[in-house]
Amino acid sequence: FNSKFSFLFSFLFFAHFLVLYSFFTLIDYSCLTDEDYLNLIRQYIYPKPYEWIFIFLHLIVFFVGLGGNFLICVFVYRNHSMRTVTNYFIVNLAIADFLVILICLPPTVLWDATKTWFLGNVMCKIVRYFQGVSVSVSILTLTFISIDRWYAICHPLKFKSTTAKARVCIIIIWIFSLIIVFPDLIILTTKRNTSLRIDTHYLTDCDYSWNEDSKRYYQFWIVIVFYLGPITLMSIAYYQIAVVLWNKNIPGDHETISQSNNIKNRASSSSKHNCNLKLSSKTNTGKYFMLHLTFV
């Protein structure tokens, strides 16, 4: 839901940016005073009507997301029967989503709506760093869930999943995520828009300080670690799970079916035998009654 609105929002923002960019470049503003030029920039960054709609939708996502993820954590915490391995991973997903909604969603919506990063250099590093950490935690948690299901269905006797092992896996996920995204704390910085004729904090961007080649290599590494690697591993795991379930090669499955069939056959044979006994007893009783009437 959130990704669809973000895509539409980005598309509309890009179209709006092209129109405004052509407007700024084709018209000569040298005759304007600095104050008039600054007011023109303020009009440009002020949210348009369609942008207010997306802000309102993101506001709904903000409150619903915080409330829903918080209730998941409270529900599992207060119900001891719900503290299973899978639910531990689901709670970890809820915590990651809660953090990204609380820390990253409001500044990102403000940034997208106004095309300006208002929160300074420190928050630029912190917000985007925790955004990357939460994404990493979510992806790795889904990967660990697929591995846990793969062991439980394909190799149930080789690995026993416990809540203690799940907690260790969750700690490993957070440590790995904090380390793998750590370069964001160093290379992210705020950049002023140098194309403006006056020095202003409007249209300030939060971006990497590396050159384009280094940025491209880093983003390619992120794509491999956060997308290609996990999706390949999950695809293999769920494919083997689907094959096992489709072929019903589950340990104990054939024995269970045969035992249930034997029980059904025995039950049906015993019921038929009981019915025959009842019929024969009724027949014998009728014969004795007729003989009694005849001789009496």
SS-based structural class?
Answer: mainly alpha
Low-pLDDT runs: 1-5, 273-296
Roughly what is the average pLDDT, rounded to an integer? 79
Radius of gyration based on Cα positions: 34 Å
Oligomeric form of this entry? single chain
Strands, count: 2
For the record, give the distance between the C-alpha atoms at the N and C termini, rounded to a whole number. 91 Å
Main sheet: which strands, in order across? 1-2
Strand content: under 5%
Q: What overall geometry do the principal axes of the alpha carbons give? A: elongated
The largest sheet, given as strand count, sense and whether it forms a barrel, is:
2 strands, antiparallel
Task: Count every helix, treating DSSP H or I runs of 4 or more residues as helices.
Answer: 9
Description:
This protein has 296 residues and is mostly helical. It is 79% helix and 3% strand. It has nine helices and two strands. The protein has a two-stranded antiparallel sheet with strand order 1-2. Helix 3 packs antiparallel against helix 4, helix 4 packs parallel to helix 6 and helix 5 packs parallel to helix 8.
Task: Describe the structure in brief.
This protein is mostly helical. It is about 80% helix and about 5% strand. Helix 3 packs antiparallel against helix 4 and helix 5 (about 120-155) packs parallel to helix 8 (about 210-245).
Features:
296 residues, 79% helix, 9 helices, two-stranded antiparallel ribbon, single chain, elongated, disordered C terminus, mainly alpha
